[in-house]
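Recall that a protein's primary structure is simply its ordered list of amino acids. Everything else, from secondary elements to tertiary packing, is in principle encoded there. The following example makes that idea concrete.
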Amino acid sequence: MSETVRILGIDPGLRRTGWGVIESQGNRLRFVAAGVLTPPITDALPVRLVGLFEGVSDLIRRFAPDEAAVEETFVNAGPRSALQLGQARGVVLMTPASFGLPVGEYSANLVKKSVVGTGHADKEQIQLMVKTLLPMADVKGADAADALAIAICHAHHRSYRKLAASP
């Protein structure tokens, strides 16, 4: 029997950071928890970034994941928004690493392709497939569903790497 790995998936955002925790054992997936971190939008940027750090740190302490996975962000907004989102993403990447967790990064297209089968799936398709793959999941909103999809993507790709490496 293969080992059980607990994965924290994170969909970074400055207003809403989705998170999801799953367990992966071979090709079996099990829902643990999901939600959204929402730093107050009225706070100054540094305070909001501290809120993200504290929120992700709390998730790591509460759920004790073995690994983390973060979506690479693609923004089509202005340069200021892109820079602020990049800062939020930096916090979300560095926090699990500061706890000693390996962190995988995945493009949005790869996440969609891994979960739905096409890299151009919409939010509703992702939510439907997450619910299909994790029937016990109580997902409220697209951000949490996206985070679970990121964790599922990581579970699929880490298993493939192990299979490809074995004799």
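The longest strand covers residues 28-37. Confidence is low (pLDDT under 50) at residues 163-167.
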